[in-house]
Design goal:
The protein has no helices and 7 strands. It has 78 residues and is an all-beta fold. It has a 4-stranded antiparallel β-sheet with strand order 4-3-6-7, with no helix packed on it.
Length: 78
């Protein structure tokens, strides 16, 4: 991944995922026990908003697959 390529996962009312250079292919959201809470495929955009996961003030793991095949993982509280 390029040094200028940045991934942002913003947890407010919804979970917003943004990447500066590569388009996002797939996003998977897990709880801390490894259970899949949501899987979103075929995105092909630089931004995606997840509004189907209920907010519960819990730690979540957001795994993002980029167009070049790289995976990036971020932890959030949502």
């Amino acid at each position: 991944m390029n040094g200028n390529d940045e991934l942002y996962v913003i947890a407010k009312e919804n979970i917003e995922v943004q990447n500066t250079l590569q388009s996002i292919e797939e996003i998977t959201v897990f709880d801390t026990l490894g259970r899949t809470l949501g899987r979103f495929e075929g995105i092909k955009e630089n931004e995606f908003t997840i509004n189907s996961i209920p907010r519960n003030n819990q730690p979540l793991i957001v795994q993002v697959k980029l167009a070049n095949g790289d995976y990036k993982t971020e932890k959030i509280i949502y």
